[in-house]
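Dear all,

This email documents one entry for the complex benchmark we are building for the journal club exercise. For each entry we list the sequence lines for every component of the assembly. Then comes the predicted three-dimensional structure of the complex as a token string, followed by one or two observations. Please use this as the template for your own entries, and keep the labels exactly as they appear.
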Amino acid sequence: MSIVLYLPNDSAAISVGADDVAKEILAQAKNTGLDIKLLRNGSRGMFWLEPLLEVVTKAGRIGFGPVSPEEVGGIVDALAKENFENADHAKFLGLVEEIPYLKNQQRITFKRVGIIEPLNLEDYQKHGGLEGLKKALTLGSEKIVEEVLTSGLRGRGGAGFPAGIKWKTVAAQTAKQKYICCNADEGDSGTFADRMLMEGDPFCLLEGMIIAAIATGANKGLIYVRSEYPASIKTLKNAINILEKSNWLGPDIDGSGHGFEIEVRRGAGSYVCGEESAMLESLEGKRGQVKVKPPIPAISGLFGKPTLVNNVLTLASVPMILADGAKAYRALGRDKSHGTQAFQLAGNIKHGGLVELAFGVSLRELIEDFGEGTKSEKPFKCAQLGGPLGAYVNEEMLDLSMDYEALAKGGAMLGHGGIVVFDEQTDMAKMARFAFEFCAIESCGKCTPCRIGSVRGYETMDKLIAGENVDQNLELIEDLCAILEESSLCAMGGLTPLPVRSAIKLFPKDFGLEG
Amino acid sequence: MDKNNVGADLPKEICAKYQNNRHALIEILHDVQEELGYIPEALVPEIADQLNVTRAHINGVISFYEDFKTAPIANTHLKICRGEACQSMGADALIEQANQLTAQSQGKISSEPVYCLGNCALAPAMMAGEKLIGLLDEKSLSKIIKKAGQ
Ligand SMILES: Cc1cc2nc3c(=O)[nH]c(=O)nc-3n(C[C@H](O)[C@H](O)[C@H](O)COP(=O)(O)O)c2cc1C
Ligand code: SF4
Ligand code: FES
């Protein structure tokens, strides 16, 4: 019997040498004559263990990690022996699913990521794939929308708008041509969950889009993927081909009479194109300029047609909601935040990765129990939540519950679920300056405060950092923040004050003020 | 290929691949750049003709998106992440180092800052061409630059 190995082809795993390890495994198999079958999976999301090599055993999959090409020989030797389940090897991790980081999660949206071969449709179905879609085909439009409403699912792209309401609005439009546009721009620093899902379980996203199409009556889908994700683009294109060949996509999906096609489109390095109206402009081949709302895309979106815009994870959550029941999903979470969230631990953290858990877990649990603190082992200073437009939080705020309402109350936001950790060496004046600079670089240019005010912002920060008229300059910064907040068309300018103000409030000393 | 006539037929071929659909402009520009490494000014009129849009529209799109280059870039182009997660792990010093080394590379290497590559749990991150690199440090960066400069 052959020895079956799994090694991720997730681009983060490859970024630390997974392909070199794969090459070495194949070479060693040839040398030793061992019958080794190497499969490539997505990542489990425990990035400090990548490349994570898994071996299939009767008891389950056991792991070795992080594995370097030099260590492959030793591992292959160990595998050649009997009872390798108890391998005596420095990188031996035991049963992968018993690793607390993984064991203590509630994987729903990510339940297959890292487990299956991403482009193996049979494997996908063996692990519950297409069940949601099959159910959807029996339910029909109205009941699907009802399920999504009941589930309490909210948009995972940042704004947290109830998905069911959007679906219902699009479904109610009478236009013949409607679109589903999946927002896979994932521009927020500190986030990588969309990428992991697109690379590790692409069918899940496509299944969610097909269900959305049946629910809303859309006949065409587009996925707007940032150009920084070439592997996601390739994997999605392959996955679409496979679903077309098996008639899960095309003019008559599984003989149901529903027709739906999906196209992948590349972004081109613009952060603001993650904002939905800018994304739609970009999909029309234009500059990614934000548009005034109303009309909302659900009524007049791509080419003026009703368009459902949802984030990757919003859409990818739907198959499981339909398959396992909306009520079960709704029961998870806290307050008005239902279901699970893919939290992403990033930056200066020992155990960075993806943690999917019901809303309501505390930030402390995420950073300290899962993340095990800073990677530098210097004291924790702060974390930025929800991407570059999100607030900084300090040690005292770590007991915040991670859900939309509690975070809003605490002056922060969840965004796309990114948590970036910083240690005590971080200069928050520099980070505040960066927030303005980022706004200046990525502004679409439509509103003057965002376009010009952001430049004034970092110039003023430069003066402040140099110790010039600190009080006056801080006042100026506060004025700029107030103007940005009040007169920006979108959250790019509107939320830039959030990281700036939170940094000043929590760490006044870094700005030359008495603490 | 005639050096003075870089990719003259290219716009036509690429636009045809997208049925001369002006809504596919971003895809078309990506394809041109993949072929030539940049988007030569001289090709803009032809693309405009094929898609039946103005040159100003195309130039406007090219200038809006960071990805599109109007001049050749070096054989090895590094995109070094300056997102917050990478900054928390010392990206600024690496960018500084890369700037110094690329300046000495006589045009063989170029670099630009980018804002998040989706590898934030393995920060600092960088892309060399299409290859993503995680846990970047001074040593690995200078190795990559040295190799590219040869
Ligand atoms: C500046 C800016 C950038 C954004 N970037 C993204 C993004 O990268 N991905 C995303 O899904 N939503 C992003 N959004 C939110 C979208 O505008 C939109 O709310 C979302 O795609 C809707 O999908 P959802 O309801 O499923 O979250 C961004 C918003 C702003 C203002
Ligand atoms: S706030 Fe900034 S990014 Fe948003 S529309 Fe105005 S100028 Fe554009
Ligand atoms: S912030 Fe650098 S990869 Fe995300």
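Observations: The longest strand of chain A covers residues 340-347. Residues 2-103 of chain A form a domain with the Glutaredoxin fold (CATH 3.40.30.10).
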